[in-house]
Design goal:
Layout: E1 14-20, H1 27-34, E2 38-43, E3 58-62, H2 64-71, H3 87-92, E4 97-101, E5 105-106, H4 118-127, E6 162-171, H5 177-182, E7 195-197, E8 210-214, H6 215-218, H7 237-252, E9 255-265, H8 271-294, H9 304-319, H10 325-343, H11 345-351
Parallel strand pairs: 1-2, 1-4, 2-3, 6-9
Antiparallel strand pairs: 4-8, 5-9, 6-8, 7-9
Length: 359
């Protein structure tokens, strides 16, 4: 008798966003897990180059010409010649959830040798609560075989909605250029079977190559900044989004999880090229982190959009003097929110409702 395969989780509620400059042969390996879902491919670089997508995938592809056509002058907020362009896919999506992955990430195996369905694990992470206000020493209390430990307050055991699921990588670790240079042969072989909520008030380095989030809860904060062509910095796109997102999640009472699932990161980027892109970021970061640790959001910041606009004002006021780049970035943050609201008018309207009001 033919076996009936179960319907994939959230099949009609999730888009997979992939930034690329090359043919997407890597999708063959992901076919058993990705084929049921809709893909949004954001083509970076030369828009006249044709990109091949394997047969049988349901996808839409946007290149720079499409981005310019759809956003008009507001397209200036979307990076060019940098994987930060992926955030256009978040904006154009109409689904509740997003999973984003890089085209050099393959299916990893767990310690028993079984292929890891990264997408399924991300969905599980997003669909169960987070515990940002009190750390559980057994990690995620909602997983099978775990629970809240003795001494965990019962009033906090319901948890809060999970906005972000941050996955990890086997093989090539996500290191910065100086670390790559001193450890060129280092590979991550450690599979840690754990998921944890990042505590409230703690920032983290968010990597965009194996990441899922609830677009309705946090989408407008997932702006990957101004990077790449014409900008003084690269490789800080996901970091910027992560810092903004975490500050906003903490303010709005949302959770961020990190840990499982793993993907197999297949190739290391050139550390010398990376150093050129990251140089200013490594230097600026020493001021950026204290800035994000001291950002204050008032009670009036009741929506992600309002929080984000408020952060942009503080970026201009406090980081503008570090470098003029941050004045440009602050303006681009506002442009991004305007473009998001234009493409997602119903979300913008519901965002305007006072707390507790129903449509």
């Amino acid at each position: 008798m033919a076996t009936v395969s179960p319907t994939p989780l959230l099949k009609d509620e999730l888009d997979i966003v992939i930034p690329t400059i090359r043919n997407l042969d890597f999708l063959e390996m992901w076919r058993p897990f990705f084929q049921p879902y809709h893909l949004i491919i954001v083509q970076d670089g030369d828009p006249s180059k044709a990109i091949k997508v394997p047969e049988g995938f349901d996808y839409e592809l946007y290149n720079r010409n499409d981005i310019n056509r759809i956003l008009g002058p507001k397209a200036s907020c979307i990076s060019f010649k940098d994987s930060a362009c992926r955030c256009f896919g978040y904006m154009i999506s109409k689904k509740k959830y997003i999973y984003t992955i890089d085209d050099d990430c393959f299916v990893a195996k767990d310690p028993s040798g079984k292929d890891i369905n990264a997408l399924e694990q991300h969905i599980k992470n997003l669909l169960c609560p987070s515990t940002p206000f009190f750390f559980n020493t057994l990690y995620d209390p909602y997983r099978d075989g775990a629970d809240f430990v003795r001494g965990y307050p019962f009033s906090l055991r319901e948890g809060v909605p999970t906005a972000v699921s941050h996955g990890l990588w086997l093989n090539i670790p996500d290191y910065d250029a100086p670390t790559q240079l001193v450890k060129p042969l280092e590979r991550n072989k450690r599979y840690v079977d754990a998921i944890m909520t990042i505590p409230k008030g703690t920032l983290f380095p968010m990597c965009g190559m194996n990441l899922a989030f609830n677009r309705e809860l946090i989408g407008p904060a997932m702006y990957f900044g101004l990077m790449g062509d014409g900008q003084p910095i690269g490789r800080y796109d996901d970091m910027w989004a992560g810092w903004c997102t975490k500050v906003i999640c903490d303010h709005l009472g949302l959770g961020v999880k990190t840990g499982l699932p793993y993907i197999w990161h297949s190739k290391a980027s050139n550390p010398f090229v990376n150093l050129k892109k990251e140089y200013k970021g490594i230097y600026w970061q020493e001021e950026l982190i204290p800035f994000f640790q001291s950002v204050t959001l008032t009670k009036d910041c009741t929506t992600v959009q309002k929080c984000y606009i408020e952060i942009s004002k503080q970026v201009k006021a406090k980081l503008g003097k570090v470098d003029d780049y941050f004045n440009k970035l602050a303006d681009a943050m506002v442009t991004w929110i305007e473009a998001w609201d234009e493409l997602n008018p119903s979300a913008a309207k519901s965002a305007e409702l006072p707390n507790g009001a129903t449509k």
